[in-house]
């Protein structure tokens, strides 16, 4: 069975994160660019693959994988030679999963609260939300990143790729508390010097 990954992509989507990941793991891949202005991501042919009509989406070994952190986790395990995920029997696996899913479970919704100017959750409502609040999320990330250079110490993993990309997106959107903070600035800048990131940007 072919190892080639079919990668459904648009540069104005979270697919840019998966593009970077594909370069990091060294996977052979074929890019299928969908024009969102022409709504090609909502065409029947693509909806048959991903009924949400969302990017990124990959197909590998006949398996469809959607949702950015799921794709990243899948690729890290499917191409283990890249060393981007701790082995299943490695105690670091727990911390790796924690931060990989912190991005989608806490950082993204908290950041969207701020970007969309939604009223901060208070009292019982804040307790119901898995992400709590924006300040809590940033404080937690800053504490984790302060020792450096990566979330798991000296080891770069797919969790760093995802979290740094999410932070960079927040900085680009002008989310308060990110750009100008030395911990976040140095972390994002350091990871954006990686050759795989440079290749993915150059190929976009």
Give a quick summary of the entry.
With 204 residues, this protein is of the alpha+beta class.
Question: Would you give an account of this structure?
Answer:
This protein has 204 residues and is of the alpha+beta class. The chain contains 9 helices and 4 strands, in the order E-H-E-H-E-E-H-H-H-H-H-H-H. The protein has helices at residues 15-25, 44-47, 68-78, 92-115, 123-128, 134-145, 158-172, 182-191, 195-203; strands at 5-9, 29-33, 57-60, 63-66. The protein has a 4-stranded mixed sheet, covered by helices on one side. Helix 1 links the parallel strand 1 (5-9) and strand 2. Helix 1 packs parallel to helix 3, helix 1 packs across helix 9 and helix 4 runs parallel beside helix 7 (158-172). The longest helix has 24 residues, at 92-115. It is globular, with a radius of gyration of 17 Å. The model has no long low-confidence stretch (mean pLDDT 93).
Instruction: Identify the strand order in the major beta sheet.
Output: 2-1-3-4
Biggest sheet layout:
4 strands, mixed
Number of strands: 4
Backbone CA Rg: 17 Å
Helix fraction bin = 40-55%
The end-to-end distance, rounded to whole angstroms, is: 27 Å
Structural class: alpha+beta
Number of helices: 9
Percent of residues in beta strands: 5-15%
H/E topology pattern: EHEHEEHHHHHHH
Mean pLDDT: 93
Could you outline the blueprint of secondary structure elements for this entry?
Layout: E1 5-9, H1 15-25, E2 29-33, H2 44-47, E3 57-60, E4 63-66, H3 68-78, H4 92-115, H5 123-128, H6 134-145, H7 158-172, H8 182-191, H9 195-203
Parallel strand pairs: 1-2
Antiparallel strand pairs: 1-3, 3-4
Helix pairs in contact: 1-3, 1-9, 4-7, 7-8
């Amino acid at each position: 069975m072919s190892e080639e990954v079919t990668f459904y992509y648009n540069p104005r989507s979270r697919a840019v994160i998966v593009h970077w990941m594909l370069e990091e793991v060294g996977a052979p891949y074929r890019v299928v660019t969908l024009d969102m202005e022409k709504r090609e991501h909502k065409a029947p042919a693509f909806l048959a693959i991903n009924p949400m009509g969302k990017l990124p989406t990959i197909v590998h070994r006949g398996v469809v994988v959607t949702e950015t952190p799921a794709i990243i986790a899948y690729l890290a395990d499917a191409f283990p030679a890249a060393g981007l995920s701790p082995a299943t029997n490695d105690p670091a696996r727990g911390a790796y999963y924690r931060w990989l899913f912190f991005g989608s479970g806490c950082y993204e919704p908290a950041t969207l609260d701020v970007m969309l100017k939604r009223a901060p959750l208070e009292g019982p409502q804040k307790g119901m939300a898995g992400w709590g609040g924006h300040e809590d999320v940033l404080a937690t990330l800053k504490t984790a990143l302060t020792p450096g250079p990566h979330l798991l110490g000296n080891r770069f993993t797919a969790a760093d790729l995802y979290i740094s990309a999410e932070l960079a997106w927040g900085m680009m959107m002008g989310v308060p508390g990110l750009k100008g903070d030395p911990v976040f600035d140095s972390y994002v800048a350091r990871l954006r010097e990686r050759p795989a990131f440079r290749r993915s940007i150059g190929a976009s």
